[in-house]
Amino acid sequence: MVLAHKMALASSMVTADAIEATEFPELSEKYRVSGVPHTVINQGAGNMIGAAPEEMLVEEIKRTLNQK
Amino acid sequence: MGNFLDDNITKQIKEVFSNLENQVEILVFTSKNDCEFCDDTTELLKEVCELSPKLKYQGVDIDSEGSLVKQYHISRTPAIAVLGQVDGKMTDFGIRFSGIPAGHEFSALIHSIVSVSRQDAGISQETQAYLDSLKSPIHLEIFTTPT
């Protein structure tokens, strides 16, 4: 199970969409996806490139929310 | 057997699905217009849902069922939503897949179904505590490829 989906299951505040990048090239281009997995947080406010451990994704989510 | 899942895969999935607890509903959103992988996704998910009585398949044509498209925030096809029961009520956790779930995605989907059914996210207590403290919504989009 993808980590983001685990978070969605664990919290009603989190939603997660696993997107097949080659099937949606416009979206991949919009977020400049060049390698996978690539996690986009809140429409590009944050990014996580590569398969990150749980704590790292949490840190990036915190950073994304704090920069508002 | 169906067209997508051979005997070996079917056996493996059934084994994983022996861990299912509560009912899971799989919504598959498709369109007849300009959707290369919609038919294959429909067929694949129907075959998966046939492997356990605890799984319910529901196909949604986005061109004729606008209210469901809105309710589940669907903006592209094919899209899959995995719903599970909380206190006996079918609940949307915001778990989505966009595009045909092949390769790694397929395995992720199968495991998502089991986790949703068991209400077991399998994250650390620290992460759970942080998620419980969230005051604003987080939307994660994970880009992957089939291989």
How are the elements arranged and paired?
The complex is a heterodimer of chains A (68) and B (147).
Chain A: H1 3-10, E1 14-20, H2 25-30, E2 38-41, E3 46-49, H3 54-66
Antiparallel strand pairs in A: 2-3
Chain B: H1 7-17, E1 24-30, H2 38-49, E2 55-61, H3 66-71, E3 79-86, E4 89-98, H4 104-118, H5 125-132, E5 138-144
Task: Report what the structure shows.
The complex is a heterodimer of chains A (about 70) and B (about 150). Chain A is α+β, with helices and mostly antiparallel strands. Chain A contains three helices and three strands; from the N terminus they run αβαββα. Chain A has a two-stranded antiparallel sheet with strand order 2-3. The mean pLDDT of chain A is about 95. By secondary structure, chain B is an alpha+beta fold. Chain B has five helices and five strands. A four-stranded mixed beta sheet of chain B has the order 2-1-3-4, with helices on one face. In chain B, strand 3 and strand 4 form a beta hairpin. The radius of gyration of chain B is 16 Å and the shape is globular. Chain B starts with 6 loop residues before the first helix and ends with a strand. Chains A and B meet through helix 1, strand 1, strand 2 and helix 3 of A and strand 4, helix 4, helix 5 and strand 5 of B. Strand 1 of chain A pairs parallel with strand 4 of chain B, so a sheet runs across the interface.
Largest sheet of chain B, if any? 4 strands, mixed
The number of strands of chain A is 3
Structural class of chain A: alpha+beta
> Which percent bin holds the helix content of chain B?
25-40%
User: What is the subunit arrangement here?
Assistant: heterodimer
Number of helices of chain B: 5
Say which CATH homologous superfamily of chain A is assigned.
Glutaredoxin
